[in-house]
C-alpha cells in the first residue's frame, strides 16, 4: 500500500516559520511531505559554477533539514525537471493534495500550470497561497479595475488597504509533518556546482539600521542598508515580518517594500516588459552598443571613480549599494547609450539578490523607458553624485582604492555624453510618435 500524503513544495519560501502554504498544508487531513526541486531549467542558465546563490539555497536547505529532523521529519530534495519529479512522487506515494505558494514570474507560471495539469489527471488538487507579498497581482487596482502603472498612487492605495491582519504571522502546527527516515541532500557537486566563500546566516531585522534608514540609505560609504534583498528573494525571511517591523520603525523602508510589490504586479500584468520597453516609443532608441565600452563598464574601468567602485563591489561581492546602482545604470544607458537589456542581464548574472521584476523595473526606470521611469532627460552626473553622496570618498576608496593612481581617462566626457543621449532619446520619441 502506498502511503497517503500531502506534499508541500518549497520554492521561494525557504523557511518553516510564518509560511502560508505550509501552514495550510499542516492543517489538512494528510501527513505533509516537504520537498524542494533544483530545476535544471534554472540551474543550466548559470554559467558560473561557483554561483553563490546556489550555495545559499543549498546551505538554507541543510539548515531546514536539521530543523525538520528535530520535528521527526525531513525534506526531500530533488534535482530534475519538476514534471518528472512529480511523476516520480505520484508513483511513490498516494498523493492526496499538493500545496505551494504563488510565484509570479513568467517561467514559474508556465511551470505551475504544467504541474497542475499533471496532477489533475490523478484528481490531485494543487492548492496555492499568497506568501511572498502582502498584496498580489490583482489586489491593488485603480477604481476602474485596471492595474496601476505609476508607483505613487499604487503606494497610496496599498497603504490605505493595509490592515494588521495582512502582516500577522501565520500559525504553524508541526504535528502533521510526515515521519520519514533521514536522507542525505544532493551535494553541490551533484548539482554541477562548487562550494563558495558564502556563509548563510539567519536574516535579522536590525532596528539600528531601519530606524534611521531614510536619513542614511543614500550614502554608500556608510553601508547603512538592510541587506535583506537576498532573504526576501528566497523567502528565508517573511515579508509579513518585514512589513510588521517597517510599520513600527520606518515609513521609508516600508516604501521600498511597496516598490518591490509594485514591480511584481507590473511584471504580472505586463509580462512583455521582460524583453521590451514598457513605453513602446523607446524601442526606437538607436543604441550604440559598443562592446569594448560595455566591457570597460562591466570591469569598472570607465574612469569615473563612483561608477567603477560600484562595479568592483558588484563583481567582488554580488551586492551593490542602491544609490550606486542608479548611477551605474544611468551611466550605461545614457552616457554610453548601451541598451538597458545588456545591463539588466549583467546584473542578473552577478546580483545575489537578483529579482526579475525589480531588476527589470529598476533598469527600465534608469533608462527612462519603464512604466514609472525617471524622465529621459534626467542624466546623473557621476562626479556630482560623488560630491553629494560620497564627498569624503569613503565608498570609492573602499572599492576603487587605486582610482587616483590609475591612468584611467574617462571613457567619455560628461557634457558631450549628456547632449548625445538627449538627441538620441528625443529622436527616438519623435519617431515613436509618428
Automatic annotation (TrEMBL):
UniProt KW ATP-binding keyword: no
Cofactor entry: (6R)-5,10-methylene-5,6,7,8-tetrahydrofolate; FAD
Pfam families (alphabetical): DNA_photolyase (PF00875), FAD_binding_7 (PF03441)
Keywords: Chromophore, FAD, Flavoprotein, Lyase
GO process terms (BP): nucleobase-containing compound metabolic process; response to light stimulus; response to stress
An annotated Gene Ontology molecular function: DNA binding
Matches recorded under InterPro entries: Crypto/Photolyase_FAD-like_sf, Crypto/Photolyase_N_sf, Cryptochr/Photolyase_FAD-bd, Cryptochrome/DNA_photolyase_1, DNA_photolyase_1_CS_C, DNA_photolyase_N, Rossmann-like_a/b/a_fold
Marked site: Electron transfer via tryptophanyl radical: 287, 340, 363
Cofactor note: Binds 1 FAD per subunit.
Binding, FAD: 213, 253, 256-263
All copies of domain Photolyase/cryptochrome alpha/beta, residue ranges: 4-134
Family: Belongs to the DNA photolyase family.
Protein name stated in the entry: Deoxyribodipyrimidine photo-lyase
Organism: Sphingobacterium paludis
Amino acid at each position: 500500500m502506498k502511503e497517503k500524503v500531502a506534499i508541500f513544495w518549497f520554492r521561494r519560501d525557504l523557511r518553516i516559520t510564518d509560511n502560508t502554504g505550509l501552514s495550510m498544508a499542516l492543517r489538512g487531513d494528510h501527513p505533509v511531505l516537504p520537498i524542494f526541486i533544483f530545476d535544471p531549467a534554472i540551474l543550466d542558465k548559470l554559467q558560473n559554477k561557483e554561483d553563490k546563490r546556489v550555495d545559499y539555497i543549498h546551505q538554507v536547505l541543510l539548515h531546514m533539514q536539521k530543523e525538520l529532523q528535530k520535528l521527526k521529519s525531513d525534506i526531500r530534495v530533488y534535482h530534475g525537471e519538476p514534471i518528472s519529479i512529480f511523476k516520480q512522487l505520484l508513483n511513490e506515494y498516494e498523493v492526496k493534495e499538493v500545496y505551494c505558494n504563488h510565484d509570479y514570474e513568467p517561467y514559474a507560471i508556465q511551470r505551475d500550470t504544467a504541474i497542475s495539469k499533471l496532477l489533475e489527471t490523478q484528481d490531485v488538487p494543487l492548492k496555492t497561497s499568497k506568501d511572498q507579498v502582502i498584496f498580489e497581482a490583482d489586489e491593488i487596482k485603480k477604481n476602474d479595475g485596471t492595474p496601476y502603472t505609476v508607483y505613487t498612487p499604487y503606494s497610496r492605495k496599498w497603504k490605505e488597504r493595509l490592515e494588521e491582519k495582512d502582516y500577522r504571522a501565520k500559525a504553524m502546527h508541526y504535528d502533521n509533518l510526515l515521519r520519514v527516515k533521514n536522507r542525505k541532500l544532493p551535494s553541490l557537486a551533484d548539482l554541477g556546482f562548487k562550494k563558495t566563500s558564502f556563509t548563510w546566516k539567519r536574516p535579522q531585522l536590525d532596528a539600528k539600521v531601519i530606524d534611521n534608514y531614510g536619513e542614511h540609505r543614500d550614502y554608500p560609504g556608510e553601508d547603512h542598508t538592510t541587506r535583506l534583498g537576498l532573504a526576501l528573494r528566497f523567502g528565508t525571511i517573511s515579508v509579513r515580518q518585514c512589513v510588521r517591523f517597517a510599520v513600527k520603525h520606518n515609513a521609508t523602508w516600508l516604501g521600498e517594500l511597496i516598490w518591490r510589490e509594485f514591480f511584481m504586479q507590473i511584471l504580472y500584468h505586463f509580462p512583455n516588459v521582460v524583453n521590451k520597453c514598457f513605453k513602446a516609443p523607446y524601442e526606437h532608441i538607436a543604441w550604440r552598443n559598443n562592446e569594448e565600452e560595455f566591457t570597460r563598464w562591466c570591469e569598472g574601468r570607465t574612469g569615473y571613480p563612483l561608477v567603477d567602485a560600484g562595479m568592483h563591489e558588484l563583481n567582488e561581492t554580488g551586492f551593490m549599494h542602491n544609490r550606486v546602482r542608479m548611477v551605474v545604470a544611468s551611466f550605461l544607458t545614457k552616457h554610453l547609450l548601451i541598451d538597458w537589456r545588456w545591463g539588466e542581464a549583467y546584473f542578473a548574472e552577478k546580483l545575489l539578490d537578483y529579482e526579475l521584476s525589480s531588476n527589470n523595473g529598476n533598469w527600465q526606470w534608469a533608462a527612462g523607458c519603464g512604466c514609472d521611469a525617471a524622465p529621459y532627460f534626467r542624466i546623473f552626473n557621476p562626479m556630482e553624485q560623488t560630491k553629494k553622496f560620497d564627498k569624503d570618498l569613503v565608498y570609492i576608496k573602499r572599492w576603487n582604492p587605486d582610482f587616483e593612481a590609475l591612468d584611467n581617462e574617462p571613457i567619455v566626457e560628461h557634457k558631450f555624453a549628456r547632449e548625445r543621449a538627449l538627441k538620441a532619446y528625443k529622436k527616438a520619441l519623435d519617431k515613436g510618435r509618428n
